[in-house]
Amino acid sequence: MSGMVVVGLFEGIEKAAKAGNALRALPLAEDRITTLSSVPLPDRAVTRDTRPIRFPRVTLVGWFVGALAGLALALGTYLLYPLITGGKAIISVPPTLIVTYEVAMLGALAGTVIAGFREMGLCRFRTRLIHDPRIQEGKILLCARVSGDEQAKRAMDAMKTAGGIDVRPEEGEL
Amino acid sequence: MSPKWAMAIDLDRCTGCGACVVACVAENNIPVVGEAEVEKGRLMQWLRVARYWEGEYPEAQAIYLPVPCMQCERAPCETVCPVYATYHNEDGLNAMVYNRCVGTRYCANNCPYSVRVFNWYDHKWEKPLDEQLSPDLTTRSRGVMEKCTFCIQRIRRAKERAAEETREIRDGEVVPACVQTCPPGALLFGDLSDPHSEITRKLKDPRRFRLMEHLGTEPRVVYLKRQKGAGR
Amino acid sequence: MSGAPNPGGGNHLARTDQGALYRELSRSNLPATRRWYTVVGLLLLVTLWGVGCFVYMMKVGMGVTGLNRPVMWGSLIASFVFWIGLSHSGTLISAILRLTNATWRAPILRGAEAMTAFALMVGGLFPLIHIGRNWRFYYMIPYPNSRQLWPNLRSPLMWDAVAINTYLLGSLTFLYFGMIPDLAIARDHATGWRKRFYTVLALGFRGTHSEWRRYHVASTIFAILIIPVAVSVHSIVGWDFAMAKVPGWHSTIFAPYFVTGAIFSGLAGVVLVMAALRKVYRLENALTTVQFENLGKLLCTMSLLWGYFYFAEFLTVWYNRNPEEWEVYRSYGGHFLPLWLSMVVCNFVVPFPLLCMRRVRRSIPALCFVSFLVLVGMYAERFLIVVTSLARRNDPFIWHNYFPSWVEFSILAGALAMFLLLYTIFAKLFPIMAVSDIQERLFQATDRVVGGTTLESVARPEASGEGGHG
Predict the structure, then answer these.
(1) Lowest mean pLDDT segment, chosen from B148-152, B218-222, C106-110, C234-238
(2) Mean pLDDT score across all residues of chain C
(3) Contacting residues of B for C132, CB less than 8 Å apart
(4) Cβ–Cβ gap A120/C209 under 8 Å
(5) What residues make up the domain containing A13?
(6) How far is the C-alpha of B117 from the C-alpha of C237, rounded, in Å?
(7) Are the beta carbons of C135 and B144 closer than 8 angstroms?
(8) Most exposed among A19, A135, B196, C117, judged by the fewest C-beta atoms under 10 Å?
(9) What is the CATH number of domain B5-224?
(10) Domains plus CATH for chain C?
(11) Which tens digit of pLDDT belongs to each residue from A100-145?
């Protein structure tokens, strides 16, 4: 995924959108264009997210893994050492349901965190990531992954024409 | 066949003398906490003789109700303990494991008879009072629950003796301290699974009732109702 | 706050640039002043005093409390219920507001979520403080002991342990996850050790289009997951009591009643925390009367709901006159009358009519007063539930009253100080305002002239269908 990325800062979403259109017209595939912004931009405002969002499945998987763990914790421990209390049955269903539910929810939360972080690409401390702190002033950083100097030059031109500030090539990952 | 230990308390015979309480304290290494603590509701006795008044003065009459642990067959205290410190043992007794207890006191709350007591402090037996401690059972540290065990140490001893002599435990062989002491003979202890035992016969009495029967705890302590009328 | 109506909740912030907005909202992160150190020092002192008293209690025995037989649970358990209840507003309210896309929510999210996390930490300590052999607390952790015996998961206390564990981890995740974009903003503004601190904590979040999209999906999932967990936690706290054979506890209404009470007291807590943040860190532009009025409306609803639940419970026992339960209720008119009155007056009689008035809801001091009353009333309610039912148990021969000892009061004070201490330190180190949420809302909002007035108009990205480029 690593390679040359052309970046440009844009003042306001309109200019960024214009630049986005120009990049697409180069042509540059949708998945090679992205933005960095301090606020979430609506999809298709500048660029479109082509990657499907898959991690909610892991939430479900986490739920079931948690449910199994909860079941083992409740039911399993009753059966490992059957000790009668209060003259009641060894297998007691409602407490098992409660414990299973709680651990299942914990599993779902854990699954969401782990898979969500992974899919968002967080915790990549060793890789050089494209970033520009100036987005915190309200600017939008438009990034285009290009292959070859020829394409880079055309992308830079397109960005400059659309009103990009500090348009430059960068080495790094998105 | 596992025994069904039970106690019968004949309220007609109970005079409220409190000898059973004293015997229990002596037998089970129960600390004496002193007046100030008793005032605060920290009595450590496993057996209490509750006293109720019936009628108005001068016709007032005291009713005495000795309340040990009921050794419920469906003991509510057992289910709520998070660490199984109280459970049903093989003799059908409601047993207490001091070493496992962390002192949540949930069992005490869930006991409708409020017979469980808590060690609010570490208790000391000053010399020479420590000489009176029974070696058959431990003293309890601060922070654990305790309660009447039907003198489990005596049951254990009788069981061992019977096993040595390869026989069953005889009726009347196990006598808890309170039963042994009761001057008017209001208390009786025995095995309900033995159809010929004295307690089985005694509990055919139509006066029998159990405390707070409606709660469904199935106590092993059965009371015999006090009769009313002349000469009583 | 007076002057022109400000329907947007800090709408004028839109006119300042983002750097200035961040500086305004992150005042709490400025280098600590002497006053800050004094406050932290004092709180630390009170906390340490509470810890000292706890250690003393542990060494000497639970006898240093006012507990007795039959009142085996007292102020420590009442405080446990109270603090866990207080934790309910934060995450729950914030999750509900996120899901319903309430436009005024942004400035209160972080403060409320942080409150949840710290109230849970403090509340979760109480059962451990309260048990007789605290040094053996690990007997309740699910692992087999040397005889291969596990803890008894049939005990409601174990349900509690499992549920609070899930809720605490969930709330911390919710708090942290919601904070990541703000940590990224802080990272890009900070220098020195704070830069390194925020760099690690922001986990390399930059705000790419893909990150933002996934971030939104994940925070929605968290919100969906955390709501049922929050409800279950206080239901289980209610079941700790309802499962017991104690007249006055054994009631089917307890789970929903406890959840209602929890949200009620939690909202009151949020109002007080928000008012304090607003005052101390001069966040008047972010936390406007809009937020307070809306919180006031919610508080009013919860007061009504609480009153309804309490009436339903009271009526059932009162009409039935089941002697065991009735003795508990009779003591409300006797020994426990002051407590009962404070509960009814502080939870319903005063707050409900006051909160019906727009003037009160829009006045921050008045709303704070009502919230304080609610906290007092809810503490009284917890105390009443725990203590009264035990003090008037089935057997009248052992009835006994209870009053907390100085050791218990010290521990309660220490707990409060610990909560405030954690909160103060959190506000110093972390973005206490959800800057990115506020920015997002400002980004979506524009002023629109309608006839002679100007109204705020909000664009909802998720409401628009196939938009886009040609």
Answers:
(1) C106-110
(2) 90
(3) 101-105, 118-119, 142-145
(4) no
(5) 3-50+127-172
(6) 24
(7) no
(8) B196
(9) 3.30.70.20
(10) 71-438 (1.20.1630.10)
(11) 999 999 999 999 999 999 999 888 888 888 899 989 888 899 999 9
